Amino acid sequence: MLDQLHAGKIAELTARRIALLDELKSDDHYRDTPAVYFGFHDPFDVPLATCDSCYSTAESRRITSGQRKVRWTVACTSCDKQIPQPQKDGWMASLVWNGANLSTQCYKSMPLFGLAHLTPSAAKERISKIRHNLVLRTSLCAVDRAIAEISDSHSKPGLMFQQKLDAYLKWAMHAHRLIKNAKNAGGGKVGDKLGTILNSPGVESCN
Ligand SMILES: [Zn+2]
Predict the structure, then answer these.
(1) Measured between alpha carbons, how far is 141 from 48 in angstroms, rounded to an integer?
(2) Ligand 1 centroid – CA 150 distance (Å)
(3) CA of 138 to the centre of ligand 1 (A)
(4) Positive or negative, the Cα torsion across 113, 204, 46, 88?
(5) How far, in Å, is the centroid of ligand 1 from the Cα of 50?
(6) Which of 21, 77, 132, 144 has the greatest count of CB atoms below 10 A from its CB?
(7) CB 107 within 8 A of CB 117
C-alpha cells in the first residue's frame, strides 16, 4: 500500500516536471522571456529603502531569543514603523520593509532586471515575463527536490540554488509593486504627494 502511494507520488511529480520542462523549453517561452540573467547584483543584498512615513533611514536587526532560531526584523531609526512579522532570512525582512515603503523608491533604480530606461507600461510587460519564467524555474526546482527526497534516481538541486531563485522571484514581485505605484502616481511622472517630498534625502525620483 505504501509502495503504491510512493509510486503514485513519484508519477505525479514526474508528470508535473515534464509539463514544466515542456513550457520552459518551448519556443514560445524562449521568445517571451526577455532575460534569465539579471545583472551582477547579489539578490540576497537588499538595500533598505528610506521610511516613507518620516523619511529617516531604516535598520535591519537580528532577533535571537533562547534556543529559538534566528529571525530578522527591519525598523525605522526614528519613528515606530517596522515590519509586521519577523522573517527567517535577512534579505526577505528587507524586501518586506521595502514593500511597506514604496513611496521612497522607484523601479528605475532597482539594481536588477534592466528597468532603468523603461516607462511603467514597458517595465510592467518586461517584469511580468521575467516573473513567469522565475515561477516556472522555482516550481521545477521544488519538484526536483521533492522527487530527490523520495527517490534515489534523481539528483537534488542545492538549497542555495533554490533560495537564489526564490530571492529573484521576490525581487520581481517587489518590482511589480513599484511599477504599479509609479503608474498610480501618474504614468511614471511624479505624483503631487511624492513631488512635494522629492528633495528629502533617500527619496528616489521616478521621472
Ligand atoms: Zn520612520
Answers:
(1) 29
(2) 48
(3) 34
(4) negative
(5) 8
(6) 144
(7) no
Task: Report the alpha-carbon distance of residue 108 to residue 182 in Å, rounded.
Answer: 10
Q: How far apart are CA 87 and CA 97, in angstroms?
A: 11
- Interatomic CA distance for residues 154 and 146, integer angstroms: 10
At 164-205, the pLDDT tens digits run 999 999 999 999 999 999 988 875 444 445 555 556 667 887
Instruction: Tell how far the Cα of 29 is from the centroid of ligand 1, in angstroms.
Output: 42
Neighbours of ion ligand 1 (CB under 5 A): 51, 53-54, 56, 76, 78-79, 81
**142, three cell numbers:** 521544488
Ligand 1 centroid from CA 51, angstroms: 5
Question: Residue ranges per domain, the chain?
Answer: 16-197
Model pTM score: 0.85
d(CA 191, CA 185): 4
Q: pLDDT by residue (tens digit) across 107-151?
A: 999 999 999 999 999 999 999 999 999 999 999 999 999 998 888
Measure 57 CA to ligand 1 centroid, in angstroms: 7
Note whether 52 and 99 are within 8 A (CB). Answer: no
Q: How far is CA 65 from CA 14, 23, 31, 72, 93, in A?
A: 42, 45, 50, 12, 17
**What's the 82 CA to ligand 1 centre distance in angstroms?**
8
